[in-house]
TrEMBL record:
GO terms for molecular function: GTP binding; GTPase activity; translation initiation factor activity. Residues 51-258 are annotated as: Disordered. It comes from the Bacteria. This is Translation initiation factor IF-2. HAMAP family: IF_2_B. One of the essential components for the initiation of protein synthesis. Protects formylmethionyl-tRNA from spontaneous hydrolysis and promotes its binding to the 30S ribosomal subunits. Also involved in the hydrolysis of GTP during the formation of the 70S ribosomal complex. It holds the Pfam family IF2_assoc. GTP binds at residues 349-356, 395-399, 449-452. Residues 239-248 have a biased composition (Gly residues). The gene is infB. Keywords: Cytoplasm, GTP-binding, Initiation factor, Nucleotide-binding, Protein biosynthesis. Residues 340-509 form the Tr-type G domain. NCBIfam families: IF-2 (TIGR00487), small_GTP (TIGR00231).
Amino acid sequence: MSEMTVKDFAVKVGRDVPRLLEQMKEAGLGQKAENDAVSEEDKRQLLDYLTKSHGGSAGAGAKNRITLTRKTRSRIKSGDRGKSIEVQVRKKRTYVKREEEKPAEEPKAQDHGPRQLVGDMAEAEAKREAEAAEEAKRRAAEESARQAAEKVEAEKAQAVPTEPEIPVPELETAAPSPEEAPAPPKEGRAEPRRAAVKKASGKAGKKGRDDRDDDRGDREERRRGGKKAKRAERRGGRRGGSQGGGKHGFQKPTQPIVREVSIPESISVADLADKMSIKANEVIKAMFTMGAAVTINQTIDQDTAAIVVEEMGHKPKLVKDDALETEVLEAISYEGDEITRSPVVTVMGHVDHGKTSLLDYIRRAKVATGEAGGITQHIGAYHVEDDHGGVTFLDTPGHAAFTAMRARGAKATDVVVLVVAADDGVMPQTIEAVEHSKAAGVPMVVAVNKIDKSGADPDRVKNELSQHGVISEEWGGDTQFVHVSAKSGEGIETLLEAIQLVSEVLELKAVPEAPGKGVVVESRLDKGRGPVATVLVQNGTLKKGDIVLAGLHYGRVRALTNELGKQVDEAGPSMPVEVQGLDGTPEAGDDFMVVADDKKAREVANFRQGKYREVRLARQQKAKLENMFSQMGQEEAAKLNIVLKADVQGSLEAIKGALEELSTDEVQVSVVSSGVGGITGTDANLALASEAIVIGFNVRADAAAREIIEREGLELRYYSVIYQLIDEVKQAMSGMLEPEWKEEIVGVAEVRDVFRAPKIGAVAGCMVVEGTVHRHKKIRVLRENVVIYEGELESLRRYKDDVQEVRNGMECGIGVKNYNDVQVGDKIEVFDQVKVERTL
Ligand SMILES: Nc1nc2c(ncn2[C@@H]2O[C@H](COP(=O)(O)OP(=O)(O)OP(=O)(O)O)[C@@H](O)[C@H]2O)c(=O)[nH]1
């Protein structure tokens, strides 16, 4: 065809003249009126423009092509199980305009610019297509399984010439090119495509009965070929497509997009489908044909997922469990301009030395300044402003909070303020606090408190602390001692300055523009507000609306509340803030971070929840005394950490000394903490933080400690004979732990009342609170979790009857043989000695 007018052209391409003129103008053509002539060159230019504007390739090679895609769905019977699979076929066809051809025209579809011209080009292309299809067909013939493809190709080739001015949809159905750039779905599922193509076309009403018959034939063939053949076919199909594509001048090699699908150790069906960019239904169906009935939310394991992915024609990539987490975390950038952030302080010290008073004083004096009402809330932390940029105090004094955080690997504290009452001096918990902060590598400032008191003797504090390696600056050490009174407020300013001084050395930096991250200080379930967590932002800024991952939980920040109870929109570095919107209550010490993707946050949280259990189990194994050494790598310096508690100072010293003497060149035994008294939650947390085993010598763990020990799978051992304790540790060190006799506590009774009778002595009215109390087993009497007597029972009675055992929840009368000093509140522990095989 030679030249035509815009009007003619508009008629040909089925578009109205003004719109066409507009497009021509956009394409840089000069036509302004409907009677202006349109040359071949103009058409090409317009086509080129439209192709480009629709995302087509604009390169020289792509100049004269147009690609059509069409999606069809069909069902095919799969395999010999007679199950059917829904097959989605994406067909793509590229038409290449030949120089000498005149563009034909036609289509419709307003918003598919290139499509309209396609029709235009189609006619010209028909011949070439036919040739190309033949070529593809030849190649396809190399593999028998690809017969279906050939047919379709052939049909495609025929489709064009039979109806020169075919509307676009006709053309689309023609080419079953498996390739597909933008629309991922189903690609991988290439093979069924072969058979399904025609079926789909037939469904669309574009094909005749013959086609459908052929289609059936294909299916028959496929059925006969079995699975292997199908796979071969699929592979072949891809190859064939690709080769044919080259000949056709297709835009891209017509290979199905084989995606590399990363599969975590477990994944939900929905997420797996998502990763392959297909509908979950299709995964469910595919799995069904493989003999597994799953639901959309069901989580499948990695191996199964890998098979499904392969079956779908993609490449599974098995990723390590924490890969997703790593990916999510690594995707967060904390780069930017740094500012100096305020120090975060934890106050520690012995009971009654004034930690709470000090925190309260500072809060009252500082936080409320200038704030309406000045009422502060307890949210677990607060920030005070001073002349040097402020200080944040973690408002949960004590070692428990500190160790709980450290146990979770969190380093929330920059500076420890060690409160020592000037009238009381260094006490056991003072020493414990020193141990904790040293172990955590956190610098200390000593607040010598109660300086207002008449008995205050600050020099004594200095002196006593120096014996524990905390030496005052005045004495040539590096620790600042500040005299304060939490009552009068004396010295508080100086204390804040001292904190600032220490923090300057630390050079605490943060990037306020970065996404917020930090640590959970505490959390609770609020009746009205749901899970509420106080977090300390350590870097970046946490904002309302952010998606947050916190420990095992995640959520979108619904509200942020500061320590004054005021809603805020954001919290910057070193600021504590209460967060609402999480789906659960994270633990103190859990990390939190703002992540970009809601779904990924959920995935990581889910993963962590699953992992949590495994990690605990793993830790249980590792923490076993028996396993500790066998698991140490050779290059690893072997170290056995012990948290030791004993009934009296004498035994404590003796055991500690003996244990430390066990150290050899290969294995170092280190008592990270020791003390007199029952095993507390703090001890357990410290053991967790330092990967230590807990040893109780004639002492027991309290409820809090037991909870942590159990939950975290720590190793706890009770002993009552020193040499046995030392011996077992020694044996473990030499890797020769024999089958051992281990004590097992089988029942505990609490003394509720004590009756004294002249003949039989003291009888304790008890309630069995754990296990079963047996008449003939050995017992110990515990007072405040410390063993005060070991022996056996004289009598065990229910009402007036002598019984052999009394179960949990029942009352009974207990007489302890040769011991009459039982008191209300004591516990009677019944134990057994069991042989434990050594497990390595
Ligand atoms: N005279 C005087 N009394 C103080 C001072 N600081 C605290 N006290 C008193 O010491 C007692 C204990 O203070 P707390 O602040 O409860 O001590 P704590 O270290 O928090 O104690 P626990 O929470 O039990 O570990 C209280 O009666 C306070 O009033 C002080 O500087 N001077």
